[in-house]
Amino acid sequence: MAGLSRTLGIFGAFVAVVGAAFYPIYFRPLLLPEEYKKEQVMNRAGIVQEDIQPGGLKVWSDPFGRK
């Protein structure tokens, strides 16, 4: 019985570490989209799209926009 609880503890710790790593990468932007939209506006402030993107390619779109 002690072996089972040790295995479950190790597995639970692994799941917790993976969850803690994915929170800021995946879940936080989904929960707080306004904060990330503001950050993207600041990051793209001095960029002229025509200078960077070659003709004929898809235009940049809002990554937070829903289809």
Could you characterize what this model shows?
The protein has helices at 2-31, 33-43, 49-52. With 67 residues, the chain is mainly α. It starts with a helix and ends in a 15-residue tail after the last helix. The relative contact order is 0.08. The model has no long low-confidence stretch (mean pLDDT 85). The protein contains 3 helices and no strands. The longest helix has 30 residues, at 2-31.
Describe the SSE topology.
Elements: H1 2-31, H2 33-43, H3 49-52
Features:
elongated, single chain, mainly alpha, 67 residues, 3 helices
TL;DR of this structure?
The chain has 67 residues and is mainly alpha-helical. Helices cover 67% and strands 0% of the residues.
Radius of gyration: 21 Å
Overall pLDDT? 85
Q: Please outline the major beta sheet.
A: none
Instruction: Please work out how many helical segments DSSP would assign.
Output: 3
Estimate the global geometry from the Cα principal axes: elongated
Task: State the helical fraction.
Answer: 55-70%
Instruction: Name the beta content range.
Output: under 5%
Distance between the termini: 51 Å
Low-confidence stretches: none
Element pattern in H and E: HHH
Strand segment tally:
0
**Helix-strand category:** mainly alpha
